[in-house]
Amino acid sequence: MPTIKFPDDTVAVTPTASDILLLADQSDGNKAKDVLVSALITLFHTTPTFTGAVTLGTADVDAGSLTMIMGAQAGDPQFSIAISSDADGDVTLDADTGDVIMESATNRGWGVVNGTWVAGSMAGNFNVIEANGNDNETYFDTYNTGNLYTKLYFRKADSNTMGTLLPTDNGEYLCDFWFKGVNTGNAWDTGAAIRVKAVANAAAGGIATEMVFQTSLGGADQEMLCLNNDNTENIINRGAQDRDFRVASIGGANSFFVQGSDGFVGMGTNTPAFELDVVGNIGIDSIPDADHKSSGITATMTAGVTCAVGDLLYQNADGELYFVDADAAATMPGIFLAISAGTNGNPVTVLCLGYARDDTWTWTVGGLIYASTTGTTTNTLTQTAPAGDGDQVQVVGVATHADRMYFKPSLVLVEVVV
Do 320 and 392 belong to one domain? Predict the structure, then answer.
């Protein structure tokens, strides 16, 4: 059993082999802390030795702190641990050099087997071991009456000097969680990981990061999910590998399916044969809830005129869209309904099939809607069929409400002969 000594904090002490020195804040006279730490030392280092003299002085002890100086096992470097408490009750575990050592440089770890502390051969800086078929459980319990909770902080400074804070650079990993099992070579091997990395140089007020979920540490092609906090995009299968993505629901096993081999999307099927393959019904809103709202199949085309929402347009030989005019077949048929404003030579969004609303319309519900003979903006639709000689009669939809219509243009033109 090692000897436990309580030296005065103002004198130098030269320990000998197997000594354990415990230095506490002498102002409070509380030896309970000494007993606690000596018990920890007994568990974790039953035969400590010193490699040289250790000088203890007032500089080593802060008010309200507890400092433990202890030697290492044979062949290991000497180290010290300081446990300090601030005014808020926060506890800091510090090491004078290197890591806070819960495991020595010779890779000796400690854990519980059948309730007994034992030493084991473990890699890394900190190991909690459980054996004999028991669960290894770690608890962080918080007791309070307010909105306070357990917090775990993983902090990274771009510095090799303890206590020196330098800004984090783009590309640096802030934290990794590795999930490992044993491979067929009886060695620990990574099966998955969660990694947090800075994606821009640090700036005041925050650090742009991404959180990546990987199936292994094999590289970017293993990244299954990437979440960004820099207002860009969240990505599934960032490495663009041949991996399918499926969303299941109570209603079906393939509510949403992305085929990794070609990017085809299936709804209700896991074997999509098209860019969008739907097995089931597609619903559109038949009651647009606001002026100039629409629902259905849309497209983006190029306007050849300045048009407004609700204008009926035909496609000219130059590929651009113009106002229909039922006076002649050359300016027919109307096949698109503008659902955004457009100008000559610029994109315009059009409805190909579906429901549209315009609060300036005053339709007779249930009546057919035709292409008009006016040929000007906001005057291309009518419920009066063209009747002049040579006029082209084209049904483009039906009124479902005074200000709504179902747009389904017929490609059949009937010429009026008088």
Answer: yes
Residue 34 domain-assigned (yes or no): yes
Tell me if 126 sits within 8 A of 98, measured CB to CB: no
pLDDT of 34 > 70? The answer is no
Q: Report pLDDT for 207.
A: 86
Same domain, 230 and 249: no
**Average pLDDT of span 78-107:** 39
- Write the DSSP string, 36-105: HHHHHHHHH-SS---SS-B---GGG--TTEEEEEE--STTSPPEEEEEEE-TT--EEEEESSSS--SS-T
pLDDT tens-place string over residues 299-354:
999 999 999 999 999 999 999 999 999 999 999 999 999 999 999 999 999 999 99
Domain containing 399 equals 294-415
Q: Is residue 117 part of a domain?
A: no
Q: Which long-range contacts (CB under 8 A, 24 or more apart) does 229-235 make?
A: 230/199, 230/200
> Does residue 222 lie within any of the structural domains?
yes
- C-alpha 298: how far from chain center: 31
Q: Is 210 helix (H, G, I), strand (E, B) or coil?
A: strand
Residues 401 and 301 in one domain: yes
Domain assignment of residue 347, yes or no: yes
Instruction: Tell me how many domains the chain contains.
Output: 4
CB of 83 within 8 A of CB of 36? Answer: no
Strands 19-24 and 3-5: parallel
Distance, CA of 77 to CA of 67 (rounded, Å): 18
E-assigned strand segments in 19-97: 19-24, 65-70, 79-85, 91-95
H-helix or E-strand spanning residue 198? strand 188-198
Q: Which residue has the tokens 């009926």?
A: 312
Write down the number of H helices and E strands in the chain.
1, 28
The reply to whether 362 and 335 lie within a common domain is: yes
Rounded Cα–Cα distance for residues 91 and 376 (Å): 78
What are the backbone angles phi and psi of residue 294, rounded to the nearest 5°?
Answer: -150, 165
Q: Do residues 322 and 267 both lie within one domain?
A: no
Q: How far apart are CA 372 and CA 384, in angstroms?
A: 8
Among residues 80, 61, 60, the alpha carbon closest in space to that of 70 is found at 80
